[in-house]
Each structure stands twice: as C-alpha cells, then as structure tokens.
Write a structure and sequence with these properties.
The chain has 878 residues and is mainly β. It is built from seven helices and 52 strands. The strands form five sheets. The protein has a 30-stranded antiparallel beta sheet that branches. The longest helix has 9 residues. The relative contact order is 0.05.
C-alpha cells in the first residue's frame, strides 16, 4: 500500500482526511474524526477496511494481519546465518557490509534484507581484505536536506485518527529525499510531527545507516533518537553499537555506552569502548570520553579523552600516543599534538619521555603553496643520562668510569632538518639539509620525523634555471659523517654550473659546459694535498654530431677540457708543500660511438619473439696531462662494469681525466615478445682495448692495470625465468690473471608486494668482499606472513644483518614481531672487530585508528629488495 501526500493535504499531517489522495484513489472517511484499519485482501488486488470502533488500532492491525494467508508471508533469507555478536551484522561473505536488523524482526520482515543500502564489493588486489562498503545510489544530491522533500510511505495496512495519530502496520517504508526508513510498524505523532518506531527501525541516509530497537524520527529536521542502536558510518568505514544514539537537527551524532571499530563485519581485531562519543557533521575527528582500546577482547589502553580521525581532512588535536620499551632505554612514550594552523600550514609537536634518558621533544612544521613545499623538523633531548657526547654510559663504565675518566657529563642530543622543493617559472629551488648532534643519534634515539640513518648526512641547497638549451645551477653542499672516519669530505661552498646546447647545421650541435667551485674543509692534522683548499674553474666546449636511424646510430664529438685552480694550503700542515698554487690543465678529447640493430623473428615453444643482435663500438681519445700535483676535491675511481665501457672518463668528478687511446667493443642480445614488447632475456658482454699505457691515476704511480693492453671482460645478464621470476647477474673477469675481479648473481620472485623471495651473492676481490644475501616476505596463510633477511660475510664468517619475524594482517589490524641481529657500524671494512647488536621490534597498527612501532617498516624496505611500504606518505594528508 503506497501513500503519497500531495499539496492538497495538510503539509506534514499523516491522517486520512477528506479529499487526500492515496495512490490513484481518493478515500473519504465516513466521519470527520473516524479512523479505518486496512489490510490487503487475499487476492492481493484490493483492500479490506474496517472502521475503528474504539479499539486500539495496534490490536486491530494484529488481528487483521493474521487473516492473510501464510503463503504470502515473506521469509528472511538470512535465517540461520552467523551474526557478529558485537554489531548483529551477518558475517556471511555474501552479506558482508550489509547492515541487518535484529533477528526477531528479520524473521518476519524480509524488506530489511531487500532494501539493503550496502553490498559486498570484492577487492582482488588486497589479498587479506576481501571487500569494502559501497552506498546505494541516492536519488538526490547528497547535500540535500531531507525535510525539504515530500514524504512517500508504504505499508501493509494503515489506521489513522485525524489530527492525532496514524498507525502503519507491516513492512513500513518511508522515503523523504535521500532518507530511507524501514520498519515493521510505525506511529505518526501529528502534534510533535514525529514518527515513533516501537518494534525496531532502520534508517539509511548518505554516509550513515542506523538500526535501533526503538526510535523517534522528526520529519521536519534531521533529528532522530534511537535506543539499542547498531550503526554504520560508511564514509569512514566505522561500525558499532550503542545504548542510545541522538542525531540532532544539524546532523551531529551523540552516542552513549558505545562500542565501535573499523574492522570488517565478523572481525573485531580492535574495538574502542567509550562512555560517550560525539561526531559532528562534516567533522575531521570524533571525540570519545572514557575510552578503552581493546585488542581482540583484551583491554590495552585507557584515556579519559581521545580524538580519532574520521576523515582525511585535518584538525588540531592530540594524535594517538606511541609506546615502546627496551632494556637500555626503558619506557619510551610519545604523545603527539597536531596543529591545523591554516589550509596550507600545519605543525606536529611530539613531547617524548624516555625513562632512562630523560624528557625530549620533536617538532615538525609544514608549508605548502602553489610554488613550493617545505618541511622544517627538529628534535631535542637535553642532558641525555646515557651519553656524554662520545661514549655511552656502558662504554664509559667499561673504560674505568669516573675514577679514571672523571665525571660523566651528560650531553645534549638534537636533530635539525629542512626539506624544500619549489618551482617558479623557469626557476627551481631545492634544500635538503639534515644535521644531528652526534653520529650515534639515529642508533640511540631514532626519529619520527622521516629522517633515516645512513652513512652520511647531506646538506644541499640549489637554485636552478632552465630555458631552451640553457641550464644553470648555483648550489652548495656539505656532509656530516656518521661513521668513524675522521677526515671530513670537501664541502662545495658554493658551485656554479652552466651548460648550453645549440643546434648548428644538420646533425651538428655545439655544447658548452662550465663549472666554478669553491672547496673547503677542516684541515687540522692533514698534510700535503689533503690539506689543500681553494677554488676550481672548469670549461668544456664540444662540437657534436648525432645520427640516428632505425637500424643504428653514429655519434661523434670533439672538444677541450680546461681546468684552472686557485689553491691554499694550511701553513701548519706538514709534508710536501704546494709547488704551484695556481695550476691549470688543458686536455683534448674526441670520441666516436657507433652501433647497429639486427632483428629476427622466432618462435619459442609457441611464443612469438624477436631476437636482437646489437653490436657497439666506442672509440675514445683523451690526451695526457700531468695531474699528480692537483688536488682531489671530488674525484674517485669508478667501479668497473659493462656500463663503464662507454664512459668518456674512468674517474668521477673533474679533478682527474684519464689519458687514453682506446676502443670498446660490446655486444647485446635481447629476446622480446612480439605482442607486448616485454623483454624476456638480455645478455651483454664487452671489453676495452688500449693502444697506450695509462699514466693518470687517482693517487700515486701507475699500477699494473694501467699497463695492460686490454681491460677485464665485463658482462651482465637479465632473464625473466618464469612469470614472476627474474634472474640477474654480472661478472668482471680478468683474462690476464685468469681470475674474477667482481661478480654477483641474484634471483628474485615477486608476484606482488606480499610475495617476495630474493637470493643473492656478490664478491669484490680487490676489497675482500664476499657476501651472501637472502630475504623473503611471504604469506603462509591468508592473514599470517613470514619475513626475514640473512646477509652473511664469508670473509669474516659473521652475519652483517639478520632478521626474522611474523606478521598478522587483516582489514583492521596489523601486528609485526621482528628479531634483528646486526653489526653496529655503517662503514665497517673489517667486520671481525665490530660489535654486534640485537633487538626485538614490535609494530602494531590499528587500521583506521593509529599504531606504534613504525621502525619495522624501514627495516623491511631496506632489507628486502623489492618490498615497498603500502602506505606512501604525502605531505598534507594529515
């Protein structure tokens, strides 16, 4: 039975008054104040109506409803299905994310299953998370006010008393705009302009589904009062139950004695029990009072006041605390507070207490606008109880303690960092600056500010300009070493780079490059060229010819490399003094690079392939100029490999240019799919043939290698063994000594980010390196995965790093436990003399709420090749 109130009726009055239209018929009451009770007849084509003679309409409705033949009674299709004890929602995957009403109502009223606003959506890519919420299609814009629309109602029967009440009985459905209300019975209260549901109700509006044992809904506003509530906030994937729920006129929700989670139905990996919960319309955070966080059913955290995220937008407030414990540091607690200063400004203040070290604090400021992003970070731990600036408390005591070394003076520990990227027209700006108080800062304290431990910290600032063929860069660079090396690297303070390219005639072009650099460092205790500082000017004009065809290429160039220095040497430096403080160098260079591409089609076990054969010859001439009296500001010797065959200098930087007259010969063959272009196999091999001995070295006299007539033979291979398997390898073989100088092989299986296996081996005989590396990340069940790495040094017979752990992960909870053994030195050349450390890491993530122990993620990213964090941090995601 369908009733629609048109404008000829009293607006908002739900009564059978004279002249009101129901469906296509006009029903007139016999008496102005009389009421009727109506039910469908047995044929389903008409209605049986009786005048109300003073009995309670509800009792008459029950009596008449029982006369309907049983075959017409709807049957609940969820009868017997397993129901989540917390929410009452079916856990059958076919009904997942389909809110249901309590079983006594469902058993009689199939409509609650039929008009479900949400249905299961399978997500193949997620693996352990099988689906998500999807709302029904709403007939009106989502921001439409329900009270501004006409009301459409359906029910099996209706009894009404003019200006007092109307009683809907059986399969009641009320639609008003985007609001959909379903219930077995409903009573319209005319004076209060409200609808009472005494036998259960379900309300479905954009973003929220509410089900209650009893409820009152006001039709002139968004207000609704429910008791015995189950709710689903679909936009934020939040579900739960409450003793009472009130939605006020503005759409704000207030719940009492509630229990909620973001886990999927049937899974309560974590739950938050609160005495009261407030969620304002359009809010970024929900506010909970007297909240208890439970892991499964075990309470693990209590707070009298908690804000938790319910959207991706940002608002000021406390974030979820973090907790840690170790034997050395004791209890480690952080309580972040987030400041939403402006749409493009924010800050995070993190008070931190480490029981064995003291109180600390961290601060991060972020700024974003149309042309730049900037992050300023800082951390401070004054008077560390366990560190005196050079020694830990344990090392201090082992060295004799205060009796020998004097008083243990506690040191201040700090960190500062700037990360900036900007662009205005043709200009770009970059600042990457990180500094810490001591080299042990990261190993002792870590950081939640996104700065990871590494061998050295770079401080770099750049201003770039690019337009047409012109590129200019003004930049400065310094380093902070975090290892035991006591000689500082040279600092660029600053350097100006310029390059310009202009096409001439046909394939000819003119290229011009120039650099001016100022180098400085602490020279205390150094002597000879190591104690030299000063400036360097380098100019390099070249004439180039580039010819490219489908069958091959021919490139040639010729030019001059001119370098001039203005040097200074510390007067206190010992050893050899400078012969010339303004040396210069002028070197001619010419090269010719040619290659051909041959192809043939072939069929390999039914797979159509193209095999290529790509020979390449590279001739290089670079004249000799004595360079042993020049400083080495940024020069280093490159590791030899296949790509080194086609470089125009065997050193990095511009302080050393290797004299040579040589020709490199290389050959590459590939097998490529004719259909997709996928490369299944690639093999390259090559060698350099020298016409003269090489005299220029990085330091000292020329060695045996510089006198050989040819280089080592370098080769590399890459093969897709199967669908997700790939083999890579490289080898450098010296035919003169009949030995392998360097080699490495690796086999990787990776079908996705959760199925990874790596097996590798590498050696470098010139550096006495011979290591194996095994790692994996692999699910053993749908929700449990194992992970591990074993990096072993065969020379010292020690494990460089080894870790192993377990992970449990589902839609709402991730727990990782990792045990790690590692050598406590980032730059050890002799592993026999390095102390080892052991640690146990625990990471718990309450998905959609918070987590702690995030260092585990960085251990996995660095230790398991191919693994990437599933969550990529964006500057302003809040």
């Amino acid at each position: 039975m369908k009733f629609k109130w048109f404008s000829i009726c009293t607006v908002g009055v739900y009564a059978l008054s004279s002249g009101c239209v129901f469906g296509a018929e006009t029903v007139n009451t016999a008496k102005p104040n009389a009421g009727f009770v109506c039910v469908p007849d047995k044929s389903g084509s008409g209605w049986l109506c009786e005048e109300d003679r003073g009995q309670k309409p509800e009792r008459d409705l029950r009596t008449l409803a029982n006369t309907i033949e049983q075959a017409k009674r709807p049957i609940d299709e969820h009868e017997g299905a397993e129901v989540d004890p917390v929410t009452g929602i079916s856990v059958d995957p076919a009904d997942w994310y389909t809110p249901t009403l309590p079983r006594p109502i469902l058993a009689t009223h199939k409509m609650f299953a039929d008009v479900s606003a949400h249905y299961y959506v399978r997500q193949q890519e997620s693996g352990f998370c099988p689906g998500g919420y999807q709302q029904r299609a709403f007939p009106h814009p989502l921001n439409s006010a329900a009270e501004s629309f006409a009301i459409v109602a359906e029910a099996d029967s209706l009894a009404a008393e003019l200006d007092v009440a109307a009683h809907f009985q059986g399969n009641v459905t009320i639609e008003q705009g985007n609001r959909l209300i379903v219930a077995p019975n409903a009573v319209i209260d005319y004076p209060r302009r409200a609808v009472h549901f005494n036998d259960g109700v379900r309300m479905d509006e954009p973003g929220v589904v509410m089900q209650g044992d009893t409820a009152t809904v006001f039709l002139d506003s968004s207000r609704a009062d429910l008791v015995g509530v189950q709710f689903l906030l679909a936009n934020v994937s939040l579900r739960g139950d409450a003793q009472t729920m009130t939605q006020d006129e503005n759409g704000n929700l207030v719940l009492t004695e509630n229990d909620f989670t973001r886990c999927e139905p049937g899974n309560n990996g974590w739950r938050l029990n609160t005495q009261s919960l407030e969620i304002e319309e359009g809010a970024v955070f929900g506010t909970a009072k007297h909240a208890v966080l439970r892991l499964k059913s075990v309470p693990i955290f209590y707070t009298p006041y908690l804000k938790f995220p319910i959207s991706d937008e940002r608002v000021s407030g406390f974030l979820f605390p973090t907790f840690a414990y170790s034997d050395e540091d004791g209890v480690d607690v952080s309580i972040p507070y987030y400041f939403n200063i402006a749409p493009n400004y924010d800050a995070t203040l993190i008070p931190r207490y480490i029981s064995q070290r003291g109180a600390a604090g961290e601060l991060e400021l972020r700024h974003l606008n149309s042309w730049q992003t900037t992050i300023l970070s800082g951390a401070m731990l004054p008077s560390d109880n366990l560190f005196n600036g050079g020694l830990s408390r344990e090392d201090f005591d082992e060295a004799g303690g205060e009796a020998i070394l004097g008083e243990f003076e506690r040191a201040d520990r700090w960190l500062g960092a700037i990360d900036h990227k900007g662009r205005i027209g043709a200009f770009r700006t970059i600042i990457d600056y990180t500094s810490v108080s001591d080299r042990d800062y990261f190993r002792d304290l870590g950081s939640d500010l996104g700065v990871s431990s590494r061998l050295e910290l770079e401080r770099r600032g750049e201003v770039q300009y690019a337009s047409g063929g012109l590129f200019m860069r003004l930049w400065a660079q310094r380093f902070q070493r975090l290892d035991e090396v006591h000689i500082d690297e040279y600092q660029r303070l600053p350097e100006l780079d310029l390059s310009y390219s202009k096409s001439l005639v046909g394939p000819l072009s003119l290229n011009f490059g120039a650099k001016w650099s100022e180098f400085d460092r602490d020279t205390d205790g150094l002597n000879g060229l190591a104690a030299v500082t000063g400036s360097r000017t380098h100019i390099e004009p070249r004439l180039r010819m580039n010819l490219s065809r489908s069958y091959g290429f021919l490139n040639a160039s010729a030019g001059i490399r001119y370098t001039a220095y203005n040097l200074e040497q510390d007067s206190a430096a010992l050893g050899v003094q400078l012969i010339d403080d303004t040396p210069d160098r002028n070197i001619g260079i010419a090269d010719l690079d040619a290659g051909l591409f041959f192809e043939r089609e072939l069929n390999w076990f039914g797979q159509e392939l193209i095999q290529t054969l790509e020979p390449r010859l590279y001739y290089l001439w670079q004249e000799f100029d004595a360079q042993e009296n020049l400083p080495s500001f940024d020069a280093s010797k490159l590791t030899f490999g296949y790509s080194q065959l086609f470089r125009d200098n065997r050193f990095s930087g511009v302080d050393r240019f290797g004299d040579t007259q040589q020709i490199s010969a290389g050959l590459t063959s590939r097998f490529i799919s004719s259909d997709t272009g996928r490369e299944y196999f690639r093999y390259s091999i090559g060698e350099i043939f020298y016409f003269d001995d090489r005299e220029v070295t990085l330091a000292g006299a020329a060695g045996v290698d510089e006198q050989q007539s040819s280089s080592a033979i370098a080769s590399e291979v890459s093969a897709a063994i199967a669908q997700h398997w790939r083999f890579t390898g490289s080898i450098v073989w010296d035919p003169h000594d009949n030995k392998v100088d360097e080699g490495g092989v690796a086999i990787q299986y990776q079908s996705d980010n959760r199925h990874i296996v790596n097996v590798g081996f590498r050696n470098r005989f010139d550096q006495d390196i011979e290591q194996t590396d095994l790692s994996l990340y692999w699910p053993v069940t749908k929700h449990i995965a194992i992970m591990g790495r074993w990096n072993y040094d065969l020379v010292s017979g020690r494990t460089i790093e080894g870790f192993g752990g377990l992970e449990y992960s589902d839609c709402c909870l991730q727990v990782r436990l990792v045990a790690r053994h590692f050598l406590d030195s980032p730059s050890a050349a002799n592993f026999e003399n390095i102390d080892s450390d052991d640690g146990v890491f625990l990471q718990v993530v309450f998905k959609g709420l918070a987590g702690f122990g995030t260092r585990v993620e960085s251990v996995l990213e660095r230790g398991i090749r191919g693994y990437r964090s599933p969550e990529q941090r964006d500057y302003f995601n809040g």
